[in-house]
Amino acid sequence: MKIAYFDCFSGISGDMCLGALVDAGVPLPKLKRELKKIPVKGYRLVSKQVKRADLAATKIDVVCRKGLHNPARTFNDVRKIIRTSSLSPDIKQKGLRIFERIFRVEAKVHGIPLQKVHLHELGAVDCVADIFGTLIGLSLLGIEQVLSSAVNLGSGFVETEHGTLPVPAPATVEILKDVPVYSTGIPYELTTPTGAVIIKELASEFAGMPLMETTTTGIGAGGRDLSRWPNVLRVFIGNLLSRELPGNAPADPSDHTITVIETNIDDMNPQLFEYVMEKLFRAGALDVFLTQILMKKGRPGVKLSALCRNAQRNTLSAIILKETSSIGVRFYEMERIALDRTIKSMDTEFGKIRVKFSRLGGEVLKATPEYEDCKKLARKLGIPLMHIMKKIS
What is residue 383's three-state secondary structure? Predict the structure, then answer.
């Protein structure tokens, strides 16, 4: 699975996301062409190389035409812009979800009805460009899943259309509920509401860096050069090697509490299960499986089970409720013991194959070749898959 891991050690903002993705290889001309599919005019993207605390980074600015009238926009205005664009349905849906969260949060923190909320900083042209530029950039890179570190918020105060507000701004606080956050005491707004809503909506998990094979990295610059602090957002692009996050788990086997989500289904086209399982895995499920069961009145059915970390329970439950005929799920916590696992790329007589090593303490108990690697080589070489797996095991 190709993933993007965002390292938010210095917070996150919309322009930092754009800069990091362009630095990671998103072609700026392609990005501009895709953004033209949105019926918003009067701006251009400008890319430049800068330094932040002597660290080279890419800075993307949204430059509006002089004299451009940029009115405040309601949710209906933004929704119309999104729906009338010629972007892909997937990007439209994600963008609409992000902006809906922004408007609902603004309505809540300022105590006004949703239909009366007018966004200024967030509703401006640069916000549309930042959010959809990020969505387009991830799509151009072929990213299947987004993961993130905990988010550094900054401290102090910030000037907004609503006056002087404490950092983190109330909207940022509301958006990042249930997300691990912290502050290193830097007296600036490191995480903006735009950056907060992007990472909240796109990241399926907030934790230490997973076991991954990095193919490229990108560094996006923040607006301030903080001298001794690299005010940048880093993104790591590569292949996920393990769904376990070794940075958060002990090396020796130990008890781990996970959540088991279940639902019984007897009225759905079985062809849909493959799609649902794929979505659950992409959202970070540790395992997904189906069990044949007999339901009331002797009807044959299927029990869909998904294992996940406790923090992912609501995300995975929502996928099941939206993508299946189920009208309810049940869940419970369960203890498990897991071996420490690492994946290494090995040279074999057939070519390079990733092998998963499972250890108890320092002793290797199991070595298993990655099935997908073996399958690719079997097709390429015209050799039975069973023969390759038997020779390597």
Answer: coil
